[in-house]
User: Fold these one by one.
Assistant:
Number 1:
Amino acid sequence: MSPPGGPETSPQETSSQEIPAAQTCPAEIAPPRISSPETRPADTPRRETLPPEIFPPQTTRPETSPPGSSSGRGEPLILIQDLWKTYTLGAVEIHALRGVDLTIYPNEYVAIMGPSGSGKSTLMNLIGCLDTPTQGSYYLGGRKVSDMNDDELARIRNREIGFVFQTFNLLARATALRNVELPLIYRGLPARERREHAMRALEEVELTSRANHKPNELSGGQRQRVAIARALVTRPRLLLADEPTGNLDSGTSAEIMDLFDKLHREGNTVVLVTHERDIAVHARRVVTIHDGKVSSDARTDTRAKAGAHAGCDAKAESVAGTQSDAGAKSVAGAQPVVEAQSVAGEGALPAPR
Ligand SMILES: Nc1ncnc2c1ncn2[C@@H]1O[C@H](COP(=O)(O)OP(=O)(O)O)[C@@H](O)[C@H]1O
Ligand SMILES: [Mg+2]
């Protein structure tokens, strides 16, 4: 299990920070540019990087429809075709993704698993429009984002995507409320409106009583709930989380996963990366990545879900084989995905898009 994250321990939250002006980039909430597979780049934030989900849009461009995107389930929210990402380090080329195909429909709940270095974060960063592919296409909600420039991607991030990071990436000197307001500040919303939306988002994560607390006055789980509220406040179409429980103890992880479960039930599309089976079992579908390619894509069945809710042991048993080195066939209680599962949303969140 992951090591517990104490309330005072996150390095990126103890550095000196001010609430950013609209034109500056708060590095603490910048995308995690990866320097090595398991070292989160939030440890070494880059000031020159654009802020992730919140930088104000600059330009738009005509949108193109994805080919063959229609199906009985309507339009896919995510349509990825033959996606490649190659990093070049001097003379060395690292093929982090080698032709990924992936389709995700609205209201799905998907876990992406795989061994360290298999390309999970690279894929999430592409899905989250934090980075661009070397080759291949990615359509989000019918719009081709794989060819967009930085400004266009920033707009998509601000409008369509909420991203939750393993290390929370909160501004240390800002209150929980202010942290949650940030995406709306970049969007240029008036103060009163911002505050209302932020308080509502904090309410959804049951943290209104801590609205005026700063991150170092909050537990790890509370910090992550603030980060989730920040991801939700723009009412994104897509909620992404890269190892969201990676810095939390098991009890707190369970609370955070209950929260993701609730958000999914309420109609949100949730995609999360995890290497822990008892986290992945919360999802309705498990996509496994090996060496930059999808090696299995399976849906967890009702029996597995029932086991998951019965307790920890049942959880582990019900997803035996969803480990990163297991293929689709070995996923106990899971079936290959032929058509993505339809999940009835109960009162999808109102969207100030
Ligand atoms: N910015 C980068 N520059 C060079 N190589 C990278 C970069 N980010 C990731 N990689 C490499 O790409 C591969 C996939 O990394 P990553 O997506 O972080 O894997 P995972 O999240 O599954 O651990 C690894 O070999 C990693 O070292
Ligand atoms: Mg990773």
Number 2:
Amino acid sequence: MNPPRVVSKPVCDAVELQEPGISLDSPMTSLGTYRGGLPADAYISSHYLEQERQTVFSQYWVCVGLASDVANPGDVYPTDVAGIPIVLVRDRNHSHHTEPPPLRAFHNICRHRGLQLIEQPCNVTGRIQCPYHSWTYRLDGTLNGTPHFGGYHQDSYRGFDRDRKGLIPIRCEQWLDLVFVNLSEDAPPLTEYLQPVIARWADYDLSLLRRESREIGLECNA
Ligand code: FES
């Protein structure tokens, strides 16, 4: 009899989560019975999805977009990771004028009442403004304006610490044109994490990579 396949811890956890109470030894879920990859449930089960969010997408580096999609100062690009809304922001200010302004990632959530700040990719000409009560944030995430927060025509109140109410930053690094974020903040440096890929592609001149749009139509169920 062949021994069970060795699988990663997250996948083991995901299988156990598929049906509470069913272990890896169950005839339904034992990976020893899967010869062609993950079971179909891994692709459609909400249990798997939640487990993957918790054990993979919220723990490690996740590629969320292309830096060239946020190339210009003020460009913002909303997306989500592990079900959490985030936004990439290209700052307008930078210290080294030979380099592009910094690209940052934040939780796409207003610090007042939690409204999502950015709905669509766009260019912000001034501040990021919340559509609910008009709090504004600079492109580096710091809180700028809180109109009438302390009462009519009073933007603050005693004890309100606006320095602690900026957008919550997310660790964000870039490799080639690919932008990665790490929600857990404790993943290894991106280049270390990607080392197997970097080593595998070491013989290619990746500086020659160019972005190209291509549309492919497929007749299939959707
Ligand atoms: S929720 Fe954003 S300003 Fe109130």
